[in-house]
Design goal:
By secondary structure, this protein is mainly α. It has one domain (20-86). The chain has 4 helices and no strands. The longest helix has 24 residues, at 36-59.
């Protein structure tokens, strides 16, 4: 199913597995919170992924309002609340 979405947006399908692995590792780093440096990079990776996903959906004709935009908006409170708790 995910491969079909990538094909519909003219992205190569070999991105599917590495992107999925990196997303799982990013979630683990955010929940683990042992290294502030890795946590910051995980949030940065999710930010860039969601910005590019929102742009890809927009340019594919799906519109800008979608799950990727909602996830991008939800990322900010998660980051700042987590930063507040860590500090």
């Amino acid at each position: 199913m995910v491969e079909g979405y990538f094909k519909s947006m003219n992205y190569p399908t070999y991105f599917v597995i590495p992107l999925a692995v990196l997303k799982v590792l990013g979630v683990i780093m955010i929940l683990w919170r042992k290294s502030q440096w890795l946590t910051e990079w995980a949030y940065a990776g999710f930010f860039f992924d969601l910005v590019l996903a929102t742009a890809a959906h927009y340019y594919a004709g799906d519109g800008i309002i979608g799950f990727s935009l909602y996830a991008l908006i939800a990322l900010f409170p998660s980051y700042f609340l987590g930063k507040y708790i860590r500090d």
